[in-house]
Design goal:
This protein is of the alpha/beta class. It is about 35% helix and about 30% strand. It has a seven-stranded mixed beta sheet. It binds flavin-adenine dinucleotide.
Length: about 375
Amino acid sequence: MTGKHILVIGGGIGGLTVATALAQKGFKVTVIERSDGSGVEGVGISQQANVVRALATLGLARDYLDAGFAYDTVEIYAPDGSLVARTPSRSLIEGFPAAMGIPRRVLLEVLSNSATAAGAEIRRSTTSASLEQDGAMVHARFSDDSQGPFDLVVGADGIYSQTRRLLFPDAPTPQFVGQAVWRYNLPRPSGFDALHVYNGPTGVGLVPMSRAEIYIYATTPEPDNPDYPLEGLAARMRTKLAGCAPAIRAIAEQITDDARVVYRPLEAIFLQGPWHKGRIGLIGDAVHATTPHLGQGGGMAIEDAVVFAEELARHDDREAAFTAYYRRRFERCRYVVEKSLEICRGQLGKGPLVDNAKAGAEMNTLLAQPI
Ligand SMILES: Cc1cc2nc3c(=O)[nH]c(=O)nc-3n(C[C@H](O)[C@H](O)[C@H](O)COP(=O)(O)OP(=O)(O)OC[C@H]3O[C@@H](n4cnc5c(N)ncnc54)[C@H](O)[C@@H]3O)c2cc1C
């Protein structure tokens, strides 16, 4: 099918990766992204060896690794701060590290540059006003009143995907899971070069994401899904960490600027049914948005993108391509969403508390399998 014109709706992690992968395979690609690119959170995300491997298939691993902070070790701590395990993570490619922390904004820059370099056109501050499929094409009209025919469309428009709603109006909607995550960037202490994860009902972690910075995250029960005012957010985050290990309480003293606290209620969705209809397919959070307990949501979107492009390039028949993509992705993404929710339920006291060392080891073994 190479040579066809593909519209990608959403220029986030999955959309920019699929634009790169498709353009590299000879498709003509147009990406539309609702935002102008200025509002991306400055906090980081963590990613594992499977993501390094997926980006390496697109020739991006070096740029990606240079832009963040690579590490090979995870330290697991008990709630009282005692070290439970210091586990080396396994790299999946010779000469490359096993895991990464990277500011989300910087990751999007790397992916945006790669999409453009591969030949994709990226139109920011643009959404689709309508999409209509006939037997031969998808006719798109955009928010700036321009329009065009496309051979195929990829909905990579995230957890609140309009494309998903258009294709499957009766599909489930994202569900609040009773928890929220608090994040804050801090200077990287000298020698801090591993992911630190704390077991316990408040899940806390410290992630190196550049030579200069780490970020702290904390998942807390927020059963009423409160809408906290900006004023006082830093003090509130410190209070949430007050029962944590001494090392975390000490670090929390640096959380002082309300405007730099990133607070986010956690939601999840997993689409059991098909991930495409006609000429329109879905990838990433649009079909499987996970809570961040395994740090794999972005990773699954990146892997989706690689597989999606491979299958479209491999098949002349689009139905066969979409079905092959779905079959290769379904179980892996379902595992990530469900295991993350299991950790979440354990932290909320609604299920057994999951040991982070065991969960991490299980995830690494499973996701080391080829995609
Ligand atoms: C608090 C939190 C922490 C996380 N931490 C991690 C982590 O550590 N590691 C990790 O791998 N993952 C993490 N994730 C998950 C990760 O952020 C997502 O899985 C990932 O961003 C999904 O990529 P995506 O491209 O599907 O969606 P997104 O990255 O959300 O991109 C969707 C894009 O579509 C655009 N858009 C939406 N609607 C339209 C429209 N109608 N027209 C045009 N554009 C549109 C949006 O502006 C956005 O840019 C975390 C998620 C959360 C909520």
